[in-house]
C-alpha cells in the first residue's frame, strides 16, 4: 500500500493544477496580475476578461483555456503548450511566445504589438485582424495559419514556414521575408510592394491573383491564381538547406 502513495500523490497534484517538481504555492495562486504559473497544469480554464498582466506561463500546459478579452500585457508564454487556446481580443502587448507550440490557437483581433513569437509553432491557427506590428516571428512555423486583414507591418518573418498560410488583405509594410518558406502561401489582395527580402522563387511558390501587388522587379507568375487541388490529396516534400538539412511535407 505504501508503494502506491507516490502515484496517488502525483494524481492528486495533477488534478489540482500542479505538475511534479512544481511549487504548490505558485500553481495555487488566484488569477491576477504578476502570478507565477510556471510549469503548472492549467488546461480548460475560463479566464475571460481577467487581468493577468506580467504573469508567467512559462512551460505551462494551457490547452483549451480561454483568455478572451484578457489583459496579458508583458505575459510570458515561453515554451507553453497552447493547443486550442483562445486569445481572441486579448491584450498581448510585449508578450513572450518564444518556443510556444500548439494548433488551432485563436489570436483574432488580439493586440500583439511588440511581442515575440520567435521559433514558435502555431499551426492551423488564426491571427485574423490581429495587430502584430513589430513582432519577431522569425524561424517560426505557421503552417496553414490565417493572417487575413492583420497588421503585420515591420514584422520579422525571416526563415519562417508560412506554407499554405493566408495573408488576404493583410498590412505587410516593411515585413521581412528573407528566406521565408512560402509554398502555396495565399497572397490574394496582399500588398507586397514595401516588404523586404522577397525574391522571385518565393513568389513562384506562392499563390496570388490579380489583386496581389508585388515589388519591382518581381513578376506575377503565369500560374496565378493557383488552381484548387481536387481528388486524392498528394504529399509534397521539399528539402530545405540551412544550417542543417531537413524536409517539409504537406
What does this structure look like?
This protein is largely without helices or strands and 250 residues long. It has three helices and four strands; from the N terminus they run ααββαββ. It has helices at residues 5-15, 24-27, 200-205, and strands at residues 101-103, 121-123, 237-241, 245-249. Strands 1-2 form a two-stranded parallel ribbon. The chain has a two-stranded antiparallel sheet with strand order 3-4.
Distance between the amino and carboxyl termini? 51 Å
Q: Specify the number of helices.
A: 3
Shape: elongated
Strand line-up in the sheet with most strands: 1-2
Tell me roughly what share of residues is in helical segments. Answer: under 10%
Question: Helix- and strand-based class?
Answer: little secondary structure
Radius of gyration: 20 Å
Q: SSE string, helix = H, strand = E? A: HHEEHEE
Largest sheet, if any? 2 strands, parallel
Compute the number of strand runs: 4
Strand content: 5-15%
**Which whole number gives the mean pLDDT?**
87
User: Low-confidence parts lasting 5 or more residues at pLDDT below 50?
Assistant: 4-16, 18-25, 231-250
In brief:
With 250 residues, the chain is low in regular secondary structure.
Features:
250 residues; little secondary structure; two-stranded antiparallel ribbon; disordered C terminus
